[in-house]
Structures are given as structure tokens and as C-alpha cells.
């Protein structure tokens, strides 16, 4: 378990090429490369229950900054870091972090120590840590090696020519009650879709060559675990329904051949079944794609019709706007004429009144003139005479 007293809350920097290891309910992240291509050798922890990040402070000498390494946890206490690379160098060193004491150490490795490599993949099965693939910037690594995490002794499991891949994936599962290691993909001059299957069992013992006694620095690791698990390894590769058989040196050939044939038949049947399912799914996807294309064509046709209708409405609207503008101009002209007519009407009325007044004055003078003469003719004295 992780000693929580050595944690500092924070946020992990963005990165790639790091290692991620599950320890209890937490993920331990080490190293990698940040966005500025600077190599890292820091430790961070993500609590999966609270989803909070913490930075781990550890004593001792940590591994040098690196990326594309592998990591594994042993006995829920020891974090092992192996290999990786910098810009021009690959490593084959092994570092151990005691997650309780939070202290780094670099124990002495035993047996057939692997060559420097980066981009490899690893997965633990019991106390055995299997390492597959990778390379050293010059050539790929074709052997599969295993580290006994209790004795820190290395052994070569098998060598498969042409199987070296950088950046492959490796997982452990179960098949017919047995542990199964499956690797997929990677890059070895071209991207691969090859599947490799490694099946450990209890029929024979994978011997570890010890060059010297195990140092006292790793005795705690040895005492914390049980005896080494017996392992028999059988490597199979499957690609597009083809199975490649590889016979191990430490396994009897006849039982291995029978078992390989049975496994091959099962894998072929499984691949055929998966192929049929994929073909059926592909057929359904094609039908759905065809339907979607038809719907898209119909939608595009409707969209074209609507666009044409919109253009027609826009033309009509522009025509109506032009006619409305002309009508407004006509109305303005009529208003001006109406104002002119009102002015003329007032002037006409004024002239009519003036005319009427002139006619009245003229009529009055005419009456006066006519009355005096007829009165004189009729012998009527004029007003002056009457007044006298």
C-alpha cells in the first residue's frame, strides 16, 4: 500500500510515454515526456475513489528521466521500473520503489540481464514479470524475457524472429482456466496487427540462471512473497486466421505438438467465428450507410428546392419593395400637388370675395346713378331741393 504521508496534492503535468501501475485503489504514474519534449522522472498518484491527484515525494536516487519504460507492482508494496529511453540512449537498469518507506533503490539484477530497450511492454503473472518487444534505436528485440520479482533473476522465455515491435500492447487474461498473455500490434518498420499468445502453465519449471547470491537489499522482497511459480511457456501468433507454431526448448515436443494443434484449431474456429460476426456487422453497417446516403440525398434535394423557393420569395419581396417605393414617391408627389391646390383654392376664394365686393360696389353706384335720373325725369325733386 502507498504511504499517504508522503503525498502532496497537485495536478499532474500533461505527458506521454509514462508508466501507469495500479496499486490498490490508486494509479501510480512515473516519468514520461511533457509537451516541451522534456523527459521526466517524477511520481504522481491518482486516487480512483476521490479522483484527486497527488505528487509523491520519495527519498533515495530515482531513475534518470525517461519515457517508454515499463513498470509493475510486486506484493502490493514494491514498484519496479525497467528500461526506457532518453533522446539518444536506451536503458536496461532496474529500479525499485518501496511504497511504504517511499525510498528508491537500485538492486543488483541476476541471470540473463536483458539488453537496453524502450517501447517494450510488460505484465506480471504471479511473481513473474514478462517483458515483450521494444528496441534500442538500432534494432528491435525479438526475445521474450521474464523477471522473477522475488529473486530479481532474469530468464529468456523464447525468441521469435520477426516479432520485435515498438509500442505494442500486452495484457493478461484467462482461457480455459489458464492465464493467457496476449500481445497486439506495434511498429517494426510497418504497423502490425499481429496477435501473439503466451500460455504459462505448471507442467515444467522456468529455470532462472543465478550468477551470484541474491543481495540482502532484496531479501525483503523475497520474504514478502511465496515460492516461484512454475511456468511452462508456449508462444503462438495469429494473424488473419493463420497460426504460427513455436516449440520451446524446455518443453517435450510431442505433448507440445498435440497441445499446439488443439490450440490452433480452437484459435482458427474462434477467428472464423469472429470473422463471420465482423462480416455480418460490416454488412449491417453498409446497409445503414446506404440508407443514410439516400436520406442525405433526399435532404439535399429538399434543401435545393427550399433554396429555390427562398430565392423566388426574395425576388418577389424585392419586386414588392420596389413597387412600394414607387408608390411612396407617387404619394409624396400627390401630397405636394394637394398642398398646391389648397393654396390655389385659398387664392381663388380670396379673388372671389374681392370680385363680389367689387360687384357690390359697382351695383351700388349704378343704382345711385339710375335713381337720380329717373327721378328727375319723373319730376321728383332731388334730395338737395327737399332739404332746402
- Sheet bearing the most strands, described? 6 strands, antiparallel
The secondary-structure element order is EEEEEEEEEEEEEEEEEEHEEHH
Distance between the termini: 157 Å
**Average of per-residue pLDDT values:** 81
Number of strands: 20
Unreliable parts:
202-256
Counted by DSSP, the helix tally is 3
Shape: elongated
Share of helix, binned = 25-40%
Structural class: alpha+beta
How much strand content do the residues show? 25-35%
Radius of gyration, taken over Cα atoms and rounded to an integer in Å = 52 Å
Gist of the model:
The protein is 35% helix and 27% strand. It has helices spanning 219-223, 253-377, 383-387, and strands at 7-9, 15-16, 19-23, 26-34, 39-47, 52-56, 70-74, 78-82, 94-98, 103-105, 110-111, 121-125, 128-132, 143-148, 153-159, 169-175, 178-184, 195-198, 235-239, 242-246.
Describe the model:
The protein is of the alpha+beta class and 388 residues long. Helix content is 35%, strand content 27%. The protein is built from three helices and 20 strands. The strands form four sheets. Strands 1, 2, 3, 4, 5 and 6 form a six-stranded antiparallel beta sheet that branches. It has a five-stranded mixed beta sheet with strand order 11-15-14-13-12, with no helix packed on it. Strands 16-17-18-19-20 form a five-stranded antiparallel beta sheet, covered by helices on one side. The longest helix has 125 residues, at 253-377. The protein is elongated. The N and C termini lie far apart (157 Å). Mean pLDDT is 81; it is low at 202-256.
Amino acid at each position: 500500500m502507498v504511504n499517504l504521508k508522503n503525498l502532496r496534492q497537485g495536478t499532474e503535468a500533461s505527458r506521454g510515454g509514462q508508466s501507469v501501475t495500479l496499486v490498490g485503489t490508486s494509479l501510480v504514474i512515473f516519468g514520461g515526456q511533457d509537451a516541451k519534449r522534456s523527459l521526466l522522472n517524477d511520481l504522481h498518484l491518482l486516487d480512483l475513489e476521490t479522483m484527486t491527484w497527488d505528487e509523491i515525494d520519495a527519498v533515495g536516487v530515482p531513475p534518470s528521466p525517461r519515457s517508454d519504460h515499463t513498470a509493475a507492482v510486486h506484493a502490493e508494496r514494491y514498484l519496479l521500473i525497467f528500461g526506457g529511453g532518453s533522446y539518444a540512449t536506451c536503458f536496461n537498469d532496474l529500479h525499485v520503489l518501496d511504497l511504504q518507506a517511499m525510498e528508491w533503490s537500485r538492486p543488483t539484477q541476476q541471470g540473463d540481464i536483458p539488453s537496453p530497450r524502450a517501447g517494450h511492454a510488460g505484465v506480471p503473472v504471479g511473481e513473474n514479470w514478462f517483458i515483450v518487444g521494444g528496441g534500442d534505436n538500432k534494432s528491435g528485440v525479438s526475445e521474450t524475457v521474464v523477471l522473477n520479482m522475488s529473486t530479481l533473476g532474469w530468464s529468456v522465455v523464447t525468441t521469435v524472429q520477426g516479432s520485435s515491435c515498438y509500442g505494442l500492447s500486452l495484457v493478461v487474461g484467462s482461457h480455459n482456466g489458464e492465464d493467457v498473455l496476449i500481445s497486439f500490434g506495434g511498429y517494426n518498420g510497418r504497423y502490425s496487427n499481429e496477435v501473439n499468445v503466451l500460455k504459462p502453465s505448471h507442467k515444467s519449471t522456468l529455470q532462472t540462471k543465478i550468477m551470484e547470491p541474491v543481495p540482502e537489499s532484496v531479501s525483503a522482497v523475497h520474504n514478502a512473497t511465496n515460492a516461484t511459480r512454475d511456468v511452462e511457456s508456449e508462444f503462438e501468433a495469429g494473424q488473419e486466421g493463420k497460426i504460427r507454431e513455436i516449440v520451446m526448448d524446455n518443453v517435450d515436443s510431442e505433448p507440445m505438438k498435440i497441445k499446439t494443434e488443439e490450440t490452433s484449431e480452437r484459435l482458427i474456429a474462434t477467428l472464423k467465428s469472429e470473422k463471420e460476426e465482423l462480416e455480418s456487422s460490416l454488412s449491417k453497417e453498409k446497409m445503414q450507410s446506404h440508407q443514410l446516403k439516400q436520406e442525405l440525398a433526399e435532404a439535399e434535394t429538399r434543401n435545393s428546392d427550399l433554396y429555390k423557393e427562398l430565392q423566388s420569395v426574395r425576388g418577389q419581396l424585392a419586386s414588392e419593395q420596389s413597387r412600394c417605393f414607387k408608390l411612396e414617391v407617387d404619394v409624396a408627389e400627390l401630397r405636394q400637388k394637394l398642398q398646391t391646390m389648397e393654396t390655389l383654392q385659398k387664392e381663388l376664394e380670396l379673388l372671389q370675395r374681392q370680385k363680389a365686393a367689387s360687384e357690390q360696389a359697382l351695383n351700388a353706384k349704378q343704382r345711385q346713378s339710375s335713381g337720380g335720373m329717373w327721378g328727375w325725369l319723373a319730376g321728383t325733386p332731388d334730395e338737395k331741393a327737399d332739404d332746402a
